[in-house]
Design goal:
With 502 residues, the chain is mostly helical. Among the domains are: 65 residues, no CATH class; 259 residues, no CATH class. Helices cover 76% and strands 0% of the residues. It is built from 24 helices and no strands. Helix 6 packs parallel to helix 9. The mean pLDDT is 85.
């Protein structure tokens, strides 16, 4: 029989697995102190502590996946009465379209990876200018996000980057293209190639951050760009074209400044940007492309054609809003697998491994959002902003919505603000013109400054917690640092546009 000490040692080792001891102690300290904080400081201050603790688990995502520590904190919040199970369920149901999107769309992208890898490998080989390549990724992500959605676009780029990384990692480990290989194990990499692998990681970090910023630039501009845009457009009665036109005074200057920021960062190499694709990596990609083209038989070509047709169906369905995004993702899975011979449960299951952990994490985040809602953590800020009058109200609203979106979920913040504004309009407190202006400001305020932190936008959080992030060493702090110049330039531009162009 094991002794009591041995049992405790085993329990301590099992708690949060391989996470550092200091991290385990920190999470335990949070869990122990929270009830005392509630007694001593009250629910309002304790609510903000819960938000800070959850953000801490996101910041340490490379130490431990945030689902377990964040889930324990969220569970304690429910048990302490900071929110209720019904409140968490309400927030989850309200965001059910996002959950459907994650479950089915991300899995659907997995079955399009052959075509995506082929297209983007050709792009890397043909476009030798790093600046032009960076602008291409920002522009393409912005354009796609304007008609699709940011999560779908970032899922595509993640799939591409993971595929490219796996190709080079396999080569650097002296493994044949068809060999079983774990591209997360650097022990297999030849010593003289580790430098190029590190530079390739830095290159991919550049590309991923440019693409993530691009999704925010495009998501700001159109009715379907972000989930909160649909809500704002519905309450304001704006169609696709009217929404686009009304947002132009803000979205166009922000887009231009975003692209100029890309140029500045690539030319100056500030904030970790400006890393070129190593020549050895380019050579490997060229060889891989030639090998794939030479070995591509009739069945492989047919698979690519099916994937191309599926992509067209995907774009058309999302652009014309033929169905909910998640259901479109399910269609992608059915079509891409049925016509490409993927019929086993095991083969289908691999596609869901990337999205389901993040889906579970997102639901735990909704528990924190429920705490924010039930404890009215944002109420004082919202009431103060809406109580202001004159031209400064729009500027103040932009800043407040942006600040809250950076520490919370921008969809939640937008929902709270636009609902309050709509109620004020229905009560006759504000004019129609003022309502339209404030609706534009809410959309801009929740879309632009939220790029400052990974938890501000779902696409950024998905990137942070993806399997790609640890491969390319993209942690919370590094994302903050690389997003900082974009957040500053784009937020200032948005603020000036709101102040002088609306």
């Amino acid at each position: 029989m094991p002794s009591v000490r041995q049992s405790w040692d085993a329990l301590a080792r099992n708690f949060l697995g391989d996470a550092p001891d200091w991290y385990k102690a920190t999470i335990l300290a949070f869990l122990v102190l929270n009830p005392f904080l509630l007694i001593l400081l009250g629910p309002f201050i304790t609510g903000w502590v819960f938000v800070a603790e959850f953000i801490f688990t996101l910041a340490m995502a490379l130490k431990c996946y945030p689902l377990q520590p964040g889930g324990l904190i969220a569970l304690e919040g429910v048990l302490m009465g900071m929110t209720s199970a019904e409140g968490v369920y309400h927030e989850t149901v309200a965001n059910f379209p996002v959950i459907l999107l994650l479950i089915f769309m991300v899995a659907g992208i997995y079955f399009l990876r052959d075509l995506l890898l082929l297209v983007f490998t050709k792009l890397l080989v043909v476009v030798r200018s790093k600046l032009l390549l960076s602008l291409t990724f920002v522009g393409a992500a912005a354009l796609l996000s304007a008609f699709l959605d940011a999560l779908t676009v970032i899922a595509v780029v993640i799939a591409v980057a993971t595929g490219l990384y796996a190709v080079y990692h396999r080569f650097a480990s002296d493994h044949a293209i068809d060999d079983e290989h774990d591209h997360s194990d650097d022990e297999l990499v030849n010593g003289h190639m580790k430098g190029d692998l590190d530079r390739f990681r830095a290159f991919l970090r550049n590309i991923m951050m440019h693409a993530a910023i691009g999704t925010a630039l495009g998501g700001l501009a159109t009715l379907v760009g972000e989930p909160q845009n649909l809500l704002i457009g519905e309450l304001a009665g704006w169609g696709f074209v009217e929404f686009f036109v009304r947002m132009l005074p803000v979205s166009l200057p922000v887009l231009i400044v975003g692209l100029l920021t890309t140029v500045l960062l690539e030319e100056t190499r500030w904030f970790g940007y400006g890393v070129a694709l190593p020549p050895t990596v380019r050579e490997v990609m060229e060889r891989w492309e030639r090998r794939e083209a030479a070995s591509r038989g009739p069945r492989q070509k047919a698979r690519l054609w099916i994937q191309a047709v599926t992509v067209v169906l995907l774009v058309v369905s999302l652009a014309f809003q033929l169905a909910e995004v998640g259901l479109v993702g399910l269609m992608v899975i059915v079509v891409a697998t049925a016509f490409n011979g993927v019929t086993s449960e095991q083969a289908l299951g691999r596609a869901f491994r990337e999205a389901l952990p993040f889906t579970a994490l997102l639901v735990t985040f909704f528990a924190i959002v429920a705490i924010i809602h039930d404890q009215e953590l944002f109420a004082r800020v919202i009431d103060f902003v809406l109580a202001q009058a004159g031209p400064g109200q729009a500027t103040l609203l932009f800043g407040a919505a942006g600040a809250l979106s950076a520490v919370s979920d921008n969809v939640f913040v937008a929902t709270v603000y636009i609902t309050e504004i709509a109620q004020a309009f229905d009560a006759g407190s504000i004019s129609r013109e003022q309502f339209d202006t404030l609706a534009i400001v809410v959309n801009a305020g929740t879309n632009v400054p939220s790029v400052a932190t990974p938890n501000g936008q779902a696409a950024f959080l998905f990137l942070l917690t993806s399997t790609l992030a640890p491969l390319i060493r993209l942690g919370f702090v590094r994302m903050l640092w690389m997003a900082l110049p974009y957040a500053v330039t784009m937020t200032i531009t948005g603020l000036l546009a709101v102040r002088f162009l609306l």
